[in-house]
Amino acid sequence: MHGSGYWLGERIGGSRASVWLAVVRGAEGFRLPVILKRAAADDPEARAELRREALIAGLSRHPNIVRVHDLFEDEGELVLAMEYVSGVSVRALPQPVPWHVAARIVADVARGLGHAHELRGPDGRPLAIVHRDVSPDNLLVSELGHTLIADFGIARSRFVEVTHHAVVKGTRGYLSPEQARGDLLDARSDVF
User: Fold this and answer.
1) Per-residue pLDDT tens for 149-177?
2) pLDDT tens across 108-147, in order?
3) Alpha-carbon distances, residue 56 vs 3, 11, 37, 154, 187 (angstroms)
């Protein structure tokens, strides 16, 4: 990946796609930490999730949604380059979370989801985005105290339909009742 301008660091997670800390190196000593998600050529579902995330999150320009920088091929793998958020997931926060911190997290997530739910395509029509996995692992709290929504890999939208009726995706324990039943979803499911 050195030729692409990204320098791979350590693997920091991932199940379907591997997640890596990396650095973009530019002229005059420029350095920018990023996150790279890599999906192997022989895993079409992981590749489809990266494409969905790139398409959906790539349209979002909001301070409470993790930004997507690039989607490219490298040695047969599909790679998604994303904003590095210096901080922790909500799951990793010390418990119990003080009420004023919890209120800030909820407010930030509501702003980010509101933005995603209201996004419109180039034709002006609503994209009808539903994240489908608003869980503590996908909510990142930065060192500055801002919460960002990550991982739109299983999101549904008007232009990227990802599952057939009655297929349940998302983190158990955080599914809305209609999502757990495999019903058709709208933004209310994310709010739940």
Assistant:
1) 999 888 888 766 554 445 566 777 777 77
2) 999 999 999 999 988 899 999 999 899 999 999 999 999 9
3) 27, 24, 15, 10, 15
- Residue 70: the pLDDT is 94
CA-based torsion, 44, 45, 48, 54: positive or negative: negative
Distance of CA 47 to the CA centre of its chain: 14
Best CA proximity match to 118, nearest among 128, 109, 110: 128
The answer to whether 169 touches 155, Cβ cutoff 8 Å, is: no
What one-letter code names the amino acid at 7?
W
CA gap 116, 65 in Å, rounded: 8
Active site residue 133: yes
Q: Among 42, 70, 133, 151, which one carries the catalytic annotation?
A: 133
148 within 8 A of 68, measured Cβ to Cβ? no
